[in-house]
Amino acid sequence: MIAYINGDLTYITDEAVIVDIQGIGYEIICPNPYYFQQSLNKEVKIYTYHYVREDAQILYGFKNEEEKHLFTKLISVSGIGPKGALAILGSVDIPGFISAIEQEDDKFLTSFPGVGKKTARQMILDLKGKLTSMVTITNETDVSNDTDRVGAEDIKEAQEALKALGYTDREIKPILPELQKEQLGSTDEIIRKALSLLMKN
């Protein structure tokens, strides 16, 4: 098992990053490759999961151990493969996701692409009680997590609005980490901030 890759980040695509280690380029599929944009042409450490099947060997990469751990738990759920797990990780904060599992929040879970009610229930059945070690969920944090979840949904709505304005996923993905940090209060505020960031790029 390859636990992490440490090398020079040489290239970023919509789905993956390429890390050079002594002249060998490792392709690593990530939830949001553009998260590593600031490390382009620099040394970077990416936590990895080595996925092996009969017809392929694939490296999946993550920004930290928590994200990697959640990925491994997600792909253990019946009906969720690596692509589905990456789609979830690419647009959610981990405490908010865990809170949704613990509170059996079907509505939040079905907001992810490819996750219907049946899969959401399976996720709750398989994961409830198994993720809480990653974060401490108390009554106080439940309130903040509710806010985080609204923020995640607002960001998704903002993404759709930006696409309607003619922006592509390739243009939008690099600014998502910045938008998530801002913790803006509404979809309109997120769109305004996104447009200002897009104009700078």
Automatic annotation (TrEMBL):
A single Pfam family, by name? RuvA_N
Q: Which organism is it from?
A: Ornithinibacillus salinisoli
Question: Subunit structure, per the record?
Answer: Homotetramer. Forms an RuvA(8)-RuvB(12)-Holliday junction (HJ) complex. HJ DNA is sandwiched between 2 RuvA tetramers; dsDNA enters through RuvA and exits via RuvB. An RuvB hexamer assembles on each DNA strand where it exits the tetramer. Each RuvB hexamer is contacted by two RuvA subunits (via domain III) on 2 adjacent RuvB subunits; this complex drives branch migration. In the full resolvosome a probable DNA-RuvA(4)-RuvB(12)-RuvC(2) complex forms which resolves the HJ.
Per the record, the domain of life is: Bacteria
- Domains as described in the record: Has three domains with a flexible linker between the domains II and III and assumes an 'L' shape. Domain III is highly mobile and contacts RuvB.
Cell location: Cytoplasm
The gene it comes from is ruvA
What job does this protein perform? The RuvA-RuvB-RuvC complex processes Holliday junction (HJ) DNA during genetic recombination and DNA repair, while the RuvA-RuvB complex plays an important role in the rescue of blocked DNA replication forks via replication fork reversal (RFR). RuvA specifically binds to HJ cruciform DNA, conferring on it an open structure. The RuvB hexamer acts as an ATP-dependent pump, pulling dsDNA into and through the RuvAB complex. HJ branch migration allows RuvC to scan DNA until it finds its consensus sequence, where it cleaves and resolves the cruciform DNA.
| Renumbered residue ranges of the record's region Domain III | 150-201
List residues of the Helix-hairpin-helix DNA-binding motif class domain. Answer: 72-91, 107-126
Q: Which GO terms describe its molecular function?
A: DNA helicase activity; hydrolase activity
Which family is this protein grouped under? Belongs to the RuvA family.
Q: What is its main location?
A: cytoplasm
Question: Can the keyword Chaperone be found in this entry's annotation?
Answer: no
Alphabetical UniProt keywords: Cytoplasm, DNA damage, DNA recombination, DNA repair, DNA-binding, Hydrolase
The record's listing under InterPro entries reads: DNA_helicase_Holl-junc_RuvA_I (IPR013849), Hlx-hairpin-Hlx_DNA-bd_motif (IPR003583), NA-bd_OB-fold (IPR012340), RuvA (IPR000085), RuvA_2-like (IPR010994), RuvA_C (IPR011114), RuvA_C_sf (IPR036267)
Gene3D superfamilies attached to this UniProt entry = 5' to 3' exonuclease, C-terminal subdomain, DNA helicase RuvA subunit, C-terminal domain, Nucleic acid-binding proteins
According to UniProt, the name of this protein is Holliday junction branch migration complex subunit RuvA
Q: Which residues form a coiled coil?
A: none
Q: Which HAMAP family does the protein's record reference?
A: DNA_HJ_migration_RuvA
Indicate yes or no for the key word DNA repair. yes
